[in-house]
Design a protein that fits this description.
The chain has about 190 residues and is mainly beta. It contains 2 helices and 11 strands; from the N terminus they run E-E-E-E-E-H-E-E-E-E-E-H-E. The strands form 2 sheets. Strands 3, 4, 5, 6, 7, 8, 9 and 10 form an 8-stranded antiparallel sheet that branches. Strands 1-2-11 form a 3-stranded antiparallel sheet. A hairpin with a 2-residue loop joins strand 7 and strand 8. The longest helix has 15 residues. The radius of gyration is 16 Å and the shape is globular. The chain starts with 12 loop residues before the first strand and ends in a 9-residue tail after the last strand.
């Protein structure tokens, strides 16, 4: 799967507690110097949001989010299409790169970059890289986002070296399953 992401695609720990050790787990690279600002676990899944240590939850400029959606039938491709559709409803100058589909840990996966030139809520622009894996137990989503001044449709407000770091980060995501000898957890 690591092959899904390249610089052209652009144009945390472990998700799962001790009970999940024998089951499927999303393995996510750590982000040194980042802090958790939100972590929620309920029947429908899990979500953790991180921002750089020097930023505030209401005024972040960079954010990483790791989510697990349980009991959803969505495929990776369908989720990525849904993100684009929902972004278009709340943004002026919304656009998206093409989906890149492949596999991680033997499971369907995909990536897509989605831009919101100006969010109707706060007037800021955002650029987000989504990485999705359709696991046996959940649909897993990892995203990296930039937020700042609004920008025109087709513009890329994030520097190439930062986008390359996002790609490296996403290439470090893995899905393992203690029940599957082909994809063991380490």
């Amino acid at each position: 799967m690591k092959r899904l992401l390249t610089a052209a695609t652009i144009g945390l720990g472990l998700l799962g507690g001790p009970a999940a050790l024998a089951a499927e787990r999303l393995q996510v690279p750590q982000l040194p110097g980042w802090k958790v600002v939100s972590s929620v676990v309920d029947r429908s899944g899990e979500s953790t949001e991180l921002i750089p240590a020097g930023e505030l939850p209401d005024s972040w400029s960079r954010r990483a989010t790791v989510q697990a959606f349980r009991n959803t039938p969505l495929t990776a491709a369908a989720f990525l299409d849904q993100v684009v559709q929902k972004t278009g409803q709340v943004c002026d100058a919304a656009s998206a790169g093409p989906s890149s589909l492949g596999a991680v840990g033997g499971r369907e996966a995909g990536t897509r970059t989605v831009a919101c030139g100006r969010y109707k809520g706060d007037g800021k622009g955002t650029l987000t890289l989504y990485f999705v894996v359709r696991g046996k137990d959940a649909l897993y989503v990892v995203s990296r986002a930039w937020r700042g001044e609004p920008f025109a449709q087709g513009a890329v407000p994030v520097a190439a070296d930062e986008l390359a770091e996002w790609v490296t980060y996403m290439n470090g995501v893995d899905l393992c399953d203690g029940r599957d000898p082909q994809h063991p957890c380490r």
